[in-house]
Amino acid sequence: MTDTASRPQTTSLWPLFAPRGIAVVGASRHPGKLGAALARSLCGYAERGAHLALVNSRDETMHRSVSEAAQAGPVDLAMLCVPAAASPDALAEAAEAGVGAAVVCAGGFAEAGGTGLQYQQQLATVVAETGIRVLGPNTSGFLAPHNGVIASFVPGAAQVPPGRVAVVAASGGVNHALAFLLAEAGHGVSLAVGLGNAIDVCASDILDYLCEDPHTAAVALHIESVADGSTLIASVRRLASRCGVVALIVGRHDVGAFAASHTGALATSWRITRAALAQAGAVVVDDERELVDAVGALAVTRAKPSRDAGVGVVTAQAGPGLLLLDDLRARNVQVPKLAQRTRESLSTLLPPLTFQRNPVDTGRPGPELGQVLRTVAEDPAVDIVAGYALYEPDAVDVVAAVAQGQVPGVPMVLGVGGAGQAVRQARAQLLGVGVAVAADPRGVAAATGALVADARARAGSGGKVVLPQAPAVDVTGLYDEDRAKALLELIGITTLPRRACTTRDEAHAALMQLGSPVAVKVLDAALLHKTEVGGVRLGVRTPTELDEAIDQLDRIQARRYLVEQMAPAGVDLILGARRDPVFGPIVLLGLGGTTAEVLADVAIRLAPLTAVEAAQMPAELAAHAVLDGWRAGPVLDTTELGRIASALGALLVANPGLVEIEINPLRVIRDGLVALDAVVQAREVDDAHTH
Questions:
Q1: 351-381, pLDDT tens digit by residue?
Q2: For 464, left (φ over 0), alpha (ψ -120 to 50), or beta?
Q3: Domain ranges in the chain?
Q4: Which CATH number is 302-461 given?
Q5: What are the start-end ranges of the E strands in 555-687?
Q6: Coiled-coil intervals in this record (predicted)?
């Protein structure tokens, strides 16, 4: 891949996605060949009166070169349908002819290894020397229906209608799969791009292009790997401020090389990428079906920015309504109890045995459905209305009911169950009036969850952001637990009274000074997990017990000891900050001990982050109820946790020589938060100066 900092850049990708003319290099008369398939896909482009040139030096009925094709009309885009070995020369020829962009369709490059690596480097060299923009190689192309450009060899691609959803996919196959799903859902696409090997044009480039695309209202982003995390996050943040972005990240079961710490083991690239994109404003989903429902909703409507958007649920059938409610609750969506006035109004519209508190069950829908929708939408606690109804035209006109029930500023998501052309037409009409549509309760929940997540993300993006500052510190040498805790104290994190001891006599003096009970630990910077080697003894009360503890530590060749006051009982967390090779400094929060590793129940943020942002992390943990006074236990002060997590991230940002800081456990006690153990890793001195 070329160095993005040194390669020539153009200000726009219009030669690629909105070309004035296209040359198909390697066009063929043989129907089964790639060049023939692409020429067929581009017939619609030629029928619009645009210049489509077929290039094949061995066919006298076609242009012999791109230069010759350019003499017959403008050529901004070259579709290269030649083998990998011939592609670098074909690209160089196109650049010399003044072509602004090219799509390299062939495979057999870096993904194939061997000589393919050489061919890909040759392509990258042409890009670096000429500035031509290249999509691919190893891509099935792109669709830009609004511009009449179906630059794809996949059958059926030309049947995807123009729409308001853009697809940016790492894979050409996923790109087309999503485009087809969006078409089936009634959306179509504004642009659909498969990146392939992405030697030049990458996801960030296309996201920046879409920031100025008037046809795009929402973007579906498919990620397999990230080369430049900061650039991607900046692009997503810019785009999400203008339109909805929904991301699907591959690699849930990534178990790549773990760091020695718990933080490193928990912070897989998949989790970090998801967290980073969500922090930048994207809605993160788990599969392609959810992606289509989510991005389809954001293409037609967005909720007002809100950290706790409330959803009013209206269902015409109880069973699907329960499925919808269950799914919403699993997404941590607020389904508030309706106001007394709202319930009184509903009681005049619905039979007495129906449930009317939220969700609202209408029974079989009737003419009152529109007024029910409006009544729920007007409730002060409702920001979004989510509903489901089977298509029963004899009972109710769903489209008319929605028209009656819409309230300005309150988005609506409606599931319409049924089959056949009439159902598809009803869904299309609803989309046309700005109502997000799904075919089933799960789809309604996915769409509603996307609106809520998008509203939360935008609620946190307004106003002036004041990031924490941290001191520069001396990072030379090794950090044992005592030195690590001294660093935490420097940024205001509470630790327990302790004494570092080099002799047995000093340990006994520490016991007298600190009072019992104490914890006695081996003090050795090389031991990151002291408990695993028998390096910790808890609850030591008497001199005799202290001698026994020291004897135990001496058996593992301890040379220094840490004697520390014991902490009250509480709930243990792990809080860590480390440098990710792709995204830079991150902060991770989870339950302490081994629980977090077993359940992988963690929240992650990029650093630096504000204390307010960090304070929201505990709510993302599946086990967050444990932190809310479970079984009369202590209650986590999220404001204090936010301050600590923010300060930890800021410390890493301010000190490039620090590699990782981990507090495990960070104990929640009735008086606040206290760090019971800490690990700090720094680079070697020479290495730190080179970063």
A1: 887 888 999 999 878 899 999 999 999 999 9
A2: beta
A3: 10-140, 160-300, 302-461, 497-565, 571-682
A4: 3.40.50.261
A5: 561-565, 571-580, 584-591, 602-606, 658-669, 672-675, 678-682
A6: none
Distance from C-alpha of 423 to C-alpha of 613, rounded to nearest angstrom: 43
- Taking Cα atoms as reference points, which of 452, 460, 451, 459 lies closest to residue 605? 460
Pairing type for strands 518-522 and 536-540 reads antiparallel
Helix (H, G, I), strand (E, B) or coil at 315: strand
Q: Are residues 666 and 575 in contact, defined by beta-carbon separation less than 8 angstroms?
A: yes
CATH match for 571-682 among 3.30.470.20, 3.40.50.2000, 1.10.10.350, 3.10.180.10: 3.30.470.20
Query: Could you tell me which residues come within 8 angstroms of residue 210 by beta carbon, excluding any fewer than 6 positions away?
Result: 166, 168, 190, 191, 216, 219, 239, 243
Q: Is the domain 497-565 a CATH 3.40.462.10 member?
A: no
Per-residue model confidence (pLDDT) at position 467: 80
Q: Enter the tokens of residue 366.
A: 């009737």
Q: Return phi, psi of residue 469, to 5°.
A: -110, 150
User: Residue 168: which residues within 8 A CB-CB, separation 6 or more?
Assistant: 193, 195, 203, 206, 207, 210, 219, 220, 221, 222
Q: Nearest Cα to 314, choosing from 450, 415, 394?
A: 415
Task: List Cβ neighbours of 207 (8 Å cut-off, separation of 6 or more).
Answer: 168, 219, 221, 232, 235, 236, 238, 239, 245
**Beta strands of 433-535 (E only): which ranges?**
436-438, 498-501, 518-522
pLDDT in tens, 510-557: 999 999 999 999 999 988 888 889 999 999 999 999 999 999 999 999
Nearest to 241 by CA among 209, 281, 206, 291: 281
Element of type H or E holding 54: strand 51-55
What CATH code is assigned to 160-300?
3.40.50.261
Domain 10-140 coded CATH 1.20.1260.10 = no
179's CB contacts (< 8 A; 6+ apart) are 143, 157, 160, 167, 189, 192
Helix (H) / strand (E) element for 545: namely helix 543-554
Copy the structure tokens of residue 270: 């998949």
Smallest Cα–Cα separation from 387: which of 349, 444, 343, 336? Answer: 444
Residue pair 284/331 in contact by the 8 Å Cβ criterion: no
| Residue 387 contacts residue 314 (beta carbons within 8 Å) | yes
Give the C-alpha separation, 73 to 417, whole Å: 51
Which residue in this structure is represented by tokens 């928990």? 266
Same fold, 302-461 and 571-682: no
Alpha carbon distances (Å) from 411 to 198, 215, 434: 37, 21, 8
Contact of 3 with 124, CB cutoff 8 Å: no
pLDDT of residue 379: 98
What pLDDT sits at residue 465? 67
Distant-in-sequence, close-in-space partners of 49: CB < 8 Å, separation ≥ 6: none
User: How far, in Å, are 46, 140, 174 from residue 149 at the CA level?
Assistant: 9, 13, 19
Whether the pLDDT of residue 348 is over 80: the answer is yes
